[in-house]
Design a protein that fits this description.
This protein is α+β, with helices and mostly antiparallel strands. 27% of the residues lie in helices and 22% in strands. The protein has 3 helices and 9 strands, in the order H-H-H-E-E-E-E-E-E-E-E-E. The strands form 2 sheets. It has a 6-stranded antiparallel sheet with strand order 3-4-8-7-6-5. Strands 2-1-9 form a 3-stranded antiparallel sheet, with no helix packed on it. The longest helix has 34 residues. The protein starts with a helix and ends in an 8-residue tail after the last strand.
Length: 179
C-alpha cells in the first residue's frame, strides 16, 4: 500500500511539473509576441546593465526591482501613505498608480485597484512559491513591482499588491488637486 501511494504521488508530481513546463512555454510565447507590438513613446524599453542598476538603486530597491524580491509587510515606505499624488516606478519614474485608486488592503503593502494606464504595467506568470501568481512589472524598465490578485474592491475587483521599495511618490500640489 505504501509503495502504491508513493507511485501515485510520483505520477501526480510528474504530471504537475509537465503542466508547469507547458504553461511556462506558453507564457514565454505570449511574452515574445507582446514584445513585437509597437509601444507608445513614453514606455519604450529602458535597457541598463546590472551594474548600472546597482549604482542607481539602493540595496532594497535593487533586491525588489531587479531580483524580484519582496519587502516584509508593514516595512515599506508607502503601505500607510495617505497623501494625494502619483506613485511612480522606483527605477525609471514611469507614473504607475494614482493615489485615488489606492485602498487599505490590510496586507502591509500598498494596494491599488487600477493602474494609471493599463499599458504602463506588464503582467507575467510567476511560479516562484509553488503555485501560479500574476507578477506585475513596469512596462518601461521591466522592474518587478509586486503581484495582482482578483480580491480587490469595485470597480475592477483587482488588488495590485506592490512593494513600496519598488515605488516613488510624487505628492500632488494643492493647485493640482481636484476640487
Amino acid at each position: 500500500m505504501k509503495y502504491k501511494i508513493i507511485a501515485i504521488l510520483t505520477v501526480v508530481l510528474a504530471s504537475c511539473q509537465a503542466q508547469k513546463s507547458k504553461n511556462m512555454a506558453q507564457d514565454e510565447h505570449l511574452k515574445s509576441a507582446l514584445i513585437s507590438i509597437d509601444l507608445p513613446e513614453d514606455i519604450r524599453p529602458i535597457k541598463k546593465s546590472e551594474e548600472e542598476w546597482k549604482s542607481l538603486l539602493s540595496d532594497m530597491e535593487y533586491y525588489v526591482l531587479r531580483e524580484k524580491g519582496t519587502e516584509r509587510a508593514f516595512t515599506g515606505p508607502f503601505w500607510d501613505n495617505k497623501k494625494e499624488g502619483i506613485y511612480t516606478c522606483g527605477a525609471c519614474e514611469l507614473p504607475l498608480f494614482d493615489s485615488h485608486t489606492k485602498f487599505r488592503s490590510g496586507t502591509g503593502w500598498p494596494s491599488f485597484w487600477q493602474p494609471i494606464r493599463d499599458y504602463y504595467i506588464q503582467e507575467d506568470i510567476d511560479y516562484d512559491i509553488g503555485y501560479k501568481r500574476t507578477e506585475v512589472l513596469c512596462a518601461r524598465c521591466g522592474g518587478h513591482l509586486g503581484h495582482v490578485f482578483e480580491d480587490g474592491p469595485k470597480p475592477t475587483g483587482l488588488r495590485y499588491c506592490l512593494n513600496g521599495a519598488a515605488l516613488d511618490f510624487v505628492e500632488r500640489s494643492s493647485e493640482l488637486s481636484p476640487k
